Amino acid sequence: MSNPTIRINPRQEQIIRLVRSQGYVSNEDMAQQFDVAVQTIRRDIGFLAEQGLLTRHHGGATPNSTIENIAYNERQILNLKAKDAIGHCAASLIPDRSSLFINIGTTTEAFARSLGGHRDLRVVTNNLHVASLISGRPDFRTVIAAGELRPKDGAILGAAAIETLDSFRTEFGVIGISGIADDGTLLDFDLNEIQCARTIIRNSRRVLLLADHTKFSRQPMGRVGGLADLMI
Amino acid sequence: MSNPTIRINPRQEQIIRLVRSQGYVSNEDMAQQFDVAVQTIRRDIGFLAEQGLLTRHHGGATPNSTIENIAYNERQILNLKAKDAIGHCAASLIPDRSSLFINIGTTTEAFARSLGGHRDLRVVTNNLHVASLISGRPDFRTVIAAGELRPKDGAILGAAAIETLDSFRTEFGVIGISGIADDGTLLDFDLNEIQCARTIIRNSRRVLLLADHTKFSRQPMGRVGGLADLMI
DNA sequence: GACAACACGAACAAAAACGCGCAATCACGA
DNA sequence: TCGTGATTGCGCGTTTTTGTTCGTGTTGTC
């Protein structure tokens, strides 16, 4: 029948906890910490990875925060370094205990990843990956918008999403953009995205627009607004 | 059914207390502490584990955290094999091109993981992890419910979520449950969860209830419905 | 592109833990 | 006092876990 006693021993449980809290731990470190041979740790890691509880690497293991891995591995992220830097910089502008919208886009996801040091934020987002990234934070209050998912980037768009976004007012709106025209006009490809961005801008006291240099060379056709709309 | 005299001797009671306070205690330590042979401790541990009062391991025992206290990460690994098997089995009942609700719970997540071979499903869910799992599928149409995220398990609950769920009718409702009473009554801990489950049941042509054997030994207090509510 | 250092898996051996059967002990009432 | 049944301790063969060795594979550097 089904085995009643699950085959996970205390050490393996500790390993999961350790890896999840540290991000990356080497086999050597774990062997030392638990006072067992490296080979034993390897066996544990192998077993846990087989169960899908963490990810194996040469020399150690990392947690299996599903979405982050999907984000990095399966999706092409251009200018990762620049986006991380932008996200980090933007995050430093957000004080603890603030409320904020986070819109769709890979740059806003980088921003969300940089919120690790913040506390007690209240976040409203229509970005599935952002929601996943911060979903484990017990001190955050995270609201996700309703609606249909767009597979390619985890965006939640449409009338229902706008309705959700429209029922909140926040101190910050963090949005990305597809393109910026020479005159400062903000541009996007998709009407739904544009409407969501507008809703966020309308309901935020301040707006942080995250964009790297590539946005200046693109010229989508939809108009989100002018830079003037972002002024405080 | 409930046996009137369960024989738990003082030593066994002490063992439970000790394990609960220490986290992990080796059989050797306990044998020394109670001044009995290791064999006797083994018997005690075996008996107590059988009663579900603690968890047995090679060389010792750990406490059996109560359901509410089990963190999501740990819950995820409970009965992983059984949950995968259940999920796989349930997935085989779903034809391509169906529409379905997927509720919160680790078993429903296992189910979602088993949908890899399906095509063109339309899914409505209030489970962030489920949404993430299937978000990359370009042939699926995925709708996520609105509302506040519960960090411990990625559940989206509340009035907004119910409103989203209530605006769809599907062929299948896939739900988990916290406990099943002997008379078939479905039980849950949280009022919000119960309301979501009821909404899903109401709006589904057929309901698939995913539960492993551990659900029969738990007795939460909220009533979701009877097994009769699930009949086709 | 080659080499050194490190990490890995497989196989084997040692150690620890386990279960079972049986005998000794204890509790308790006839 | 004796018998009965439950509990405990011990011996021993079996299973599980852990450590070690060694040939192979991977990584990083020059």
UniProtKB/TrEMBL annotation, chains A, B:
<dbReference type="InterPro" id="IPR036388">
    <property type="entry name" value="WH-like_DNA-bd_sf"/>
</dbReference>
<dbReference type="InterPro" id="IPR001034">
    <property type="entry name" value="DeoR_HTH"/>
</dbReference>
<dbReference type="GO" id="GO:0003700">
    <property type="term" value="F:DNA-binding transcription factor activity"/>
</dbReference>
<protein>
    <submittedName>
        <fullName>DeoR/GlpR family transcriptional regulator</fullName>
    </submittedName>
</protein>
<dbReference type="InterPro" id="IPR018356">
    <property type="entry name" value="Tscrpt_reg_HTH_DeoR_CS"/>
</dbReference>
<keyword id="KW-0805">Transcription regulation</keyword>
<keyword id="KW-0238">DNA-binding</keyword>
<feature type="domain" description="HTH deoR-type">
    <location>
        <begin position="8"/>
        <end position="63"/>
    </location>
</feature>
<keyword id="KW-0678">Repressor</keyword>
<dbReference type="InterPro" id="IPR050313">
    <property type="entry name" value="Carb_Metab_HTH_regulators"/>
</dbReference>
<keyword id="KW-0804">Transcription</keyword>
<dbReference type="InterPro" id="IPR037171">
    <property type="entry name" value="NagB/RpiA_transferase-like"/>
</dbReference>
<dbReference type="GO" id="GO:0003677">
    <property type="term" value="F:DNA binding"/>
</dbReference>
<dbReference type="InterPro" id="IPR036390">
    <property type="entry name" value="WH_DNA-bd_sf"/>
</dbReference>
<dbReference type="Pfam" id="PF00455">
    <property type="entry name" value="DeoRC"/>
</dbReference>
<dbReference type="InterPro" id="IPR014036">
    <property type="entry name" value="DeoR-like_C"/>
</dbReference>
<dbReference type="Pfam" id="PF08220">
    <property type="entry name" value="HTH_DeoR"/>
</dbReference>
